[in-house]
Amino acid sequence: MNKKLTYTAVSAVLLMVIAGCGEKPAASPDANADQGNNSVVSAAGGNSANSGGEVVTPSIAPPAEATPAPTATAKPTEPAKQSQDIEVYYTDPQQMDLIAAKGTISFASETEKYREAFKTLQSSSNTEQVPLWSGIELKSLDFKDGQIVMDIHKPDEAQLGAGGESLAISALAKTFFQFEEVKSVELLVDGEQVESLMGHVDLEHPLTRENSGL
Predict the structure, then answer these.
(1) Euclidean distance between the first and final Cα of the chain, in Å?
(2) What does residue 95 show for φ and ψ, rounded to 5 degrees?
(3) Cβ contacts of 141 within 8 Å, gap of 6 or more
(4) Does a cis peptide bond (omega within 30 degrees of 0) precede residue 29?
(5) What would the DSSP string read from start to end of 77-121?
(6) Distance of CA 46 to CAs 7, 34, 37, 42, 181, Å?
(7) Residue 70 and residue 67: Cα distance in Å, rounded?
(8) Residue pair 185/173 in contact by the 8 Å Cβ criterion
(9) pLDDT in tens, 138-150
(10) What is the per-residue pLDDT across 64-88, written as a single tens digit (0 to 9) for each?
């Protein structure tokens, strides 16, 4: 009877030992939490590891270069104009003689000076001083090496008689030759040299002080 109880007790102990060895210990919650935290820290770090274990450094775009602001282009300075008092020549209402008058011109270059001087021959505010070059169109005027080369167009209404033609040429010569630097005047009509300006008086090519009687 005692032996039977003893065998029964030993058998129960062996079964308990075998059952205890078969159970696996469960992972503690704290250990799992620590592993999760380690994963978060690894992902938030500056460098990350790929599947091969290599460290990948994130690329940084270079800063954009600043575009220089366009610089303003300085405008060329226009030459200052100057004024000069000159002698201007007209005729009387009967076209008997030349009448000298005072005029003022403004210019910024030599060429402009002679253009303005010619303009004074084309108009007058005094009824007793009749312009002899009224109605004449100045097509071009250049000055080089002491010579004025001017090209005009003469409409029919600007035609004068023999006396008026002679006075007109004298008025032109006296007006231009008052400038010491002017040595000669080449007068063209529609780009050509003509024997006579209006068909009555010979026209010299070029006009000079000598052949103009000055």
Answers:
(1) 177
(2) 55, 50
(3) 111, 114, 115, 118, 148, 149, 150, 151
(4) no
(5) PPPPPEEEEEEEEEE-TT--SEEEEEEEEEESSHHHHHHHHHHHT
(6) 67, 21, 16, 9, 87
(7) 9
(8) yes
(9) 999 999 999 999 9
(10) 666 766 666 767 677 789 999 999 9
What is the amino acid identity at position 72?
A: A
Helix runs in the chain, H state only: 2-22, 29-44, 110-120, 162-176
Q: Is 213 left (phi over 0), alpha (psi -120 to 50) or beta?
A: left
Tokens representing 181? 């630097």
Band (pLDDT 50/70/90 cuts) for residue 133 is: very high
With CA atoms as reference, report the closest residue to 192 among 139, 136, 156.
139
- Give the Cα separation of 89 and 99 in Å (integer): 6
Length of the chain equals 214
